[in-house]
Amino acid sequence: MKIYRNKYLGLRHGRSVANQQHIIVSSLEYGIKSEFGLTRDGVDGAKESILLAKEIGLLSSDVYICCSPFSRCLETAELLREVLQITSPIAIDNRLRERSFGDFEGGNSEKYKLVWDLDFNNPFHNENGVENVMDVQRRMKEVIFDLERRFFNRKYVLVSHGDPLQILRCFFNGINPKEHRKQESIKNSEIFSF
User: Can you tell me the mean pLDDT for 148-164?
Assistant: First the structure.
């Protein structure tokens, strides 16, 4: 198992309008729009999760936040910053963005299952213009490698999305990324150690 210079936590954004409406919002163009931010339940769930993580010692005010540019992640990161009274700024990194679901953009979220089945058979597939698993893993790993090169002994919270975090967790655990959806699903507002 590789030893890292920094500690990394994942935080999946709180329940969003897209989650509630069962629609796929995976493009940067739509993902940054405020109408696809958190629901009221999403805000409450994120706060509850953050407070619980603080209570058990997983989170504290000395963490650094790296965040997807999507509104649902930025709102979650702002809650994290506010609840923990973090003074360092939120670092926005486009590499933490949602996985692109190509032609399924704006469609029903039931299409995820179709993509995940294809992922398991071929992690390099780009059917229907979907960003392949290996490309998602590459960009997510680049975030870690950049932080490892630049910093030492910091704790980072990566605020991102379900698929990118699932795929990055496979990397940390030495699991073939094609199996990202065979692993336990990361829930909205879930905070975990890599």
Answer: 98
